[in-house]
Specification:
Strand order of the largest sheet: 1-2
Organism: Acetonema longum DSM 6540
CATH topology of the largest domain: Four Helix Bundle (Hemerythrin (Met), subunit A)
GO molecular function: DNA binding
Order of helices and strands: HHHEEHHHHHHHH
Distance between the termini: 22 Å
CATH superfamily of the largest domain: GntR ligand-binding domain-like
Protein name: GntR domain protein
InterPro entries: GntR_C, RNase_R_HTH_12, TF_FadR/GntR_C
Largest sheet: 2 strands, antiparallel
Keywords: DNA-binding, Transcription, Transcription regulation
Structural class: mainly alpha
Number of helices: 11
Number of domains: 2
Length: about 240
């Protein structure tokens, strides 16, 4: 988590950003107190002067403060730091019970089944399903670009492909393999740590399915899961040398 000082700074910058106009010291103090901060107006005033000196805020006469461009960047930095720390906590919890060998076993099994599912989806998918697959993929891209967690959208993407394949046996098999609901968050964190982007692979899979090309779809899915296997290997190698 952020330090107490950083959390206070973050909350102040958010209050200033969300104000419809320049906001004064007293109003900021009231909102901070409502959020649980034990703070006086005099202390808020001193902190605001510090923010002014750092050029994170700009004083507008007697009306109060507005957020500067540097303040917007500072707020984004603090938010990113908070997300990164939260990711670490969530990952540590999710990783419990997931060894490298277990993850690789699951991925090898997924590669065999999901590659065939992708090929069948390219043959059997409806136009509405292809459109939905595209929207899932685009939402995933946007969330990841904003620094958010998109593990559930990864699950939705692969689940829809299984549905599109129209093969109940293969669908049941992959559902059994993917029943661990912590698997996607673990893999998403690993990809982040090794700078790998799943949605780029998803685009290639989508193109194969949308183009009704089972060969292309199968190959794209195989390459996608091969990359996940490489990411797991790379992550454990980096961790062992950390």
């Amino acid at each position: 988590m952020l330090s107490d000082k950083e959390k206070l700074e973050y909350d102040m910058l958010v209050i200033i950003r969300e104000a419809c106009q320049a906001i004064g010291c007293g109003a900021i103090c009231v909102q901070l107190q409502e959020q649980g901060h034990s703070i006086s107006e005099a202390t808020v005033g001193r902190l605001l002067r510090d923010l002014d000196r750092a050029r994170y805020t700009a004083k507008t006469g007697f009306q109060g403060r507005t957020l500067s461009a540097a303040g917007v960047e500072r707020l984004a930095h603090l938010a990113s730091k908070q997300r990164g720390m939260q990711w670490g906590v969530e990952f540590a919890a999710a990783l419990q019970g997931h060894t490298k060998e277990q993850l690789l076993e699951v991925l090898v099994a997924r590669r065999a089944i999901e590659s065939e599912l992708a090929a069948l989806a390219a043959v059997n998918a409806t136009a509405a399903e292809v459109e939905k697959l595209d929207s899932i993929m685009e939402e995933q891209r946007q969330i990841i670009a904003a620094g958010g967690a998109a593990a559930q959208l990864d699950v939705d993407f692969h689940a829809l492909i299984a549905q599109m394949a129209r093969n109940r046996i293969l669908m049941a098999a992959v559902a059994l393999i993917r029943q661990d609901d912590q698997l996607s968050p673990v893999l998403e964190h690993i990809r982040r740590q090794v700078n790998s982007a799943a949605y780029i692979d998803h685009r290639k899979i989508y193109q194969g399915i949308a183009g009704s090309s089972p060969v292309t779809a199968r190959q794209a899915m195989t390459e996608h899961i091969d990359k996940l296997i490489d990411d797991v290997e790379k992550y454990w190698e980096q961790s062992s040398h950390a």
